[in-house]
Amino acid sequence: MFTGIIEEKATIAQMNDHETHMELKIKAEKIMQDMKEGDSISINGVCLTVTDFDENMFQVDVMPETMKSTSLQALQENSRVNVERAMAANNRFGGHFVSGHVDAAGRIASIEPLANAVYIHIEVPEQLMPYMMLKGSVTLDGISLTLFGVDDAASTITVSIIPHTWEETNLSTKQLNDPINVECDVLMKYTERLLETKYKKA
Predict the structure, then answer these.
(1) Count: domains in the chain
(2) Distance of CA 198 to CAs 54, 189, 202, Å?
(3) Is 111 exposed, middle or buried (0-12, 13-18, 19+ CB in 10 A)?
(4) 195: left (phi over 0), alpha (psi -120 to 50) or beta
(5) Which of 12, 70, 188, 191 has the smallest CB count inside 10 Å?
């Protein structure tokens, strides 16, 4: 479980394409402090497992389905990625519940600087729109954000990015039509499932 509060921007140092998986070697600093083999870590919102590490780099394996269905497919060596370690029970919980199970990859439709903020408009698959609520939570490339706009007809959402988030995450590297991972609020999905099961039995 994660919070969507990004700890640092790391760098893809090496990508090794194996027959069964993609091996990513990622250069980082802050999150290396207490890393252990087997740790869960969020890479652009995708929950992955640390398989190896040294003083300034760690390794994760990505299965083909994950590469195909998330924005990880667009990664190249030297790409910047958002990283977050799994939530610790004794830390403040500053974002919202993030599972690291991406629902789909959206697409950057427009980027609009306005005053000291940046508005990003994102096209998302139509089936995700029922989970999008004005002032509700959404996770984009692992970042916990508040929905500033929801357009059901156009199947788009809008988020307003403050300077700190713009500078400390990979959003500043995004361009038009780039893919971006979308995870809907997990509490909404659990609620939907409970109600669906309840009324199906009735």
Answers:
(1) 2
(2) 49, 14, 6
(3) middle
(4) alpha
(5) 191
Cα–Cα distance measured from residue 182 to residue 156, given in angstroms and rounded to the nearest whole number: 12
Q: What is the CATH number of the domain that holds 14?
A: 2.40.30.20
**Residue at 185: amino acid letter:** D
The pLDDT assigned to 95 comes to: 81
Q: What is the mean pLDDT of the chain?
A: 94
What whole-number distance in Å separates Cα of residue 175 and Cα of residue 17? 25
Q: Side-chain half-sphere of 139: how many Cα atoms within 13 Å?
A: 33
Residue 112 lies in a domain: yes
Rounded Cα distance, 1 and 164, in Å: 23
Q: Is residue 93 part of a domain?
A: no
Q: Is the pLDDT of residue 202 over 70?
A: no
Average pLDDT over residues 104-109: 98
**Which H or E run includes 151?**
strand 143-151
What value, to the nearest 5°, has the Cα angle with vertex 123 and ends 68 and 179?
Answer: 35
- Give the model's pLDDT for residue 201: 67
φ and ψ at residue 15, rounded to 5 degrees: -125, 120
What domain range is 182 assigned to?
104-193
Residue 105 pLDDT exceeds 90 = yes
202 occurs within a structural domain = no
Q: What is the pLDDT of residue 199?
A: 78
Where a domain ends, among 56, 85, 114?
Answer: 85
Q: What is the mean pLDDT of residues 170-180?
A: 97
